[in-house]
Write a structure and sequence with these properties.
about 280 residues, alpha/beta, Rossmann fold, seven-stranded mixed sheet, two-stranded antiparallel sheet, about 40% helix, binds S-adenosylmethionine
């Protein structure tokens, strides 16, 4: 393979390829050459034949449906630059709604907060970055996910404590002011599980029994004890699950139930408050 200009290569590959967009190819080249976009467009660096082969392999992975974030080992979320690998879900933009709603709902005074099923640490570390006086705990059943989240704590210079736990089993009653979770909520029979995007992600981060509601119910049930009096639970769910999640919150004695929509206008997050006498 002969040497080629980067911009030519972006043009050629994005013309032929099935899945990669021009932006994907551009990001792969920036990562391969470790340069920024300005240099790419100002200097149009030449790709050596070895770099062309490497690029071809990366584009092939993308064409097979592997998320760009896994190939680049990086994903922007809220104001963080997160390291991601196959041990964690790639954080989704719709999850940012949960951060926004929590920040809107509480002042900056001290709080103890738990991000349950933290994965890459996306939710907990974002909250910690925004609220320096909050004590943020991040927990996950996957020790490999905890390792990724811890790496992201140092990468983004934020504070958090990590705990390896099956949902709330490791925690004492009346511990947290806020519990937040984006749990697995896809029905195991949902054919989307086998789609290009999802098939690379850890299955335990995606599916949950009882039509996707099993883990949500466990979290709601356990949270009523682990939250302090007047504590709040914020939980992300599928776009068609808000009715069921609302009923579960009522079943486990939550009140002040609120629903929040994502940018498509779909219900995506439910919150509730627990009052203990
Ligand atoms: C949908 S992912 C969310 C990851 C991250 N919070 C985010 O929003 O990008 C769900 C996470 O829950 C974790 N998880 C699954 N079952 C769990 C359990 N029984 N206890 C604790 N965490 C669990 C998975 O390992 C995964 O990291």
């Amino acid at each position: 393979m002969n040497e080629r200009s980067s911009l030519n290569q972006i043009h050629n590959i994005s013309k032929d390829t099935r899945l990669s967009t021009k932006l994907d190819v551009e990001l792969l080249i920036l990562d391969l050459l470790k340069i920024d976009k300005n240099i790419l467009y100002r200097e149009d660096p030449v790709l050596s034949s070895r770099q062309l082969k490497e690029l071809e392999a990366l584009v092939r992975r993308r064409e097979q449906g592997e998320p760009l974030a896994y190939i680049l080992k990086s994903k922007g979320f809220w104001s963080l630059d997160l390291f991601v690998d196959e041990n964690v879900l790639v954080p989704r933009p719709e999850t940012e709604i949960i951060i926004e709603k929590i920040l809107e709902s509480f002042d900056t005074s001290e709080k103890t907060v738990l991000d349950l099923g933290t994965g890459s640490g996306a939710i907990g570390l974002s909250l910690s970055k925004e609220r320096k006086d909050w004590g943020v705990f991040c927990s996950d059943i996957s020790f490999d996910a905890i390792k990724v989240a811890r790496k992201n704590k140092y990468k983004n210079e934020v504070d958090a404590i990590f705990i390896n736990s099956d949902w709330l089993e490791a925690y004492a009653d009346n511990t947290f002011d806020i519990i937040v979770s984006n749990p697995p909520y896809i029905d195991p029979d949902d054919p989307r599980i086998h789609s290009d995007g999802l098939k690379y992600e850890p299955i335990h981060a995606l599916i949950s029994g009882q039509k996707g509601l099993k883990d949500i119910e466990t979290i709601i049930c356990q949270s009523q004890e682990v939250l302090v009096n007047k504590g709040s639970l914020f939980i992300e769910h599928g776009h068609d699950q808000s009715g069921e999640v609302e009923l579960l919150l009522e079943k486990y004695n939550f009140s002040d139930i609120r629903k929040f929509q994502d940018l498509n206008g779909d219900d995506r997050v439910c919150s509730g408050k627990i009052f203990k006498c």
